[in-house]
Design goal:
Helix 4 packs across helix 9. The longest helix has 29 residues. The protein is built from nine helices and no strands. It is mainly alpha-helical.
Length: 227
């Protein structure tokens, strides 16, 4: 029997590489955000947050919550990254940084100032967990582990702070006309405009400090995803 030709063995490729990890983490965030928003939309259709008198007002109030807006943004950005983990572009860099910062602030503010303020139904508890815990934790973890980076420059930070600042202005202007504010610490009717504005300014300051901190941290972390 003639000798068989020698075939060099190659090392098996890892089934769970950095790209796969990136897709997984970004996908978890996208699904958590979509699931939580879906549950809140269902609640708005059936009864709505608060005591809004009309369906239109229920929807306007729902999408006036920073929680919903930040989850919409991070969910959309992470859905793109789940398909293309190294996605890039000038606008996308701004959206990515804004999304990570907004969802991080959402989680921090909720767990420090807002948790336990109202009783929730089982579906409300699930939505609360998805929007305020799962999405923030996995979004920040995903940024830290799989990026994408480097992406953060001074110009990116400057543009990234515009959306939350615009939301603060919108909230106070609309609240002045309707008397409704999405969060107690911003309720100018109950606290007075000066106190409510100070509270909002403190949250904005946290946002800016976090943006600068992420830029400094990014300089110390390796490029990602690698592979």
């Amino acid at each position: 029997m003639p000798p068989q030709p020698y075939i060099a063995k190659t090392a098996p490729q890892a089934a769970w590489g950095p790209i796969a990890l990136a897709r997984f983490l970004h996908g978890v965030v996208a699904l958590a955000a979509a699931g939580g928003i879906g549950l809140e939309l269902s609640a708005a259709i059936s009864g709505g947050p608060g005591t809004a008198p009309t369906h239109l007002e229920r929807f306007v109030r729902l999408f006036s919550y920073f929680t919903i807006d930040s989850n919409l943004l991070v969910g959309g950005v992470c859905a793109l990254l789940a398909f293309r983990p190294a996605h890039d572009g000038r606008l996308f860099r701004v959206l990515r940084l804004t999304a990570v910062l907004c969802i991080a602030v959402t989680g921090i503010v909720f767990h420090t100032l807002l948790t336990g303020l109202r009783e929730l139904t089982p579906s409300g508890q699930l939505a609360n967990f998805l929007l305020h815990t799962a999405a923030p934790v996995f979004a920040v973890l995903g940024w830290f582990l799989v990026g994408p980076r480097p992406r953060t420059g001074r110009g990116t930070i400057a543009w990234a702070v515009l959306l939350p600042l615009a939301w603060i202005v919108y909230t106070f202007v609309r609240g002045a006309f309707t008397g409704w504010y999405p969060y107690p610490f911003m309720d100018a009717g109950a606290l007075g405009l000066a106190r409510a504005a100070l509270n909002a300014a403190l949250v904005a300051a946290v946002f800016i400090v976090m943006a600068i901190g992420l830029r400094l941290l990014e300089k110390q972390l390796p490029a990602a995803p690698a592979g």
